[in-house]
Automatic annotation (TrEMBL):
InterPro entries: DUF8053. This is DUF8053 domain-containing protein. Residues 3-56 form the DUF8053 domain. It comes from the Archaea. The lineage of its organism: Archaea, Methanobacteriati, Methanobacteriota, Stenosarchaea group, Halobacteria. It holds the Pfam family DUF8053.
Length: 65
């Protein structure tokens, strides 16, 4: 099981980098090798455990600018 580093994102968030090979296998990387903009749901399932689910973008209206 690979270990990933938690990193600072902005001033109020943290993030984890997901392997591009795994994202590519799910169709989440475009032809140019860039990760697609894709909504995901992050759910804390218990203390110290989170689940990331890819959700269908058509289930949500576009964000207003």
């Amino acid at each position: 099981m690979p270990i990933h580093q938690l990193t600072q994102v902005g001033r109020t968030s943290g993030g984890v980098v997901l392997p591009k090979s795994e994202l590519r296998a799910l169709g989440l990387v475009d032809e140019d090798g860039n990760v697609k903009d894709q909504p995901v749901r992050v759910t804390q399932t218990e203390a110290g455990t989170w689940e990331i689910s890819v959700i269908d973008p058509s289930d949500y209206p576009p964000a207003e600018a």
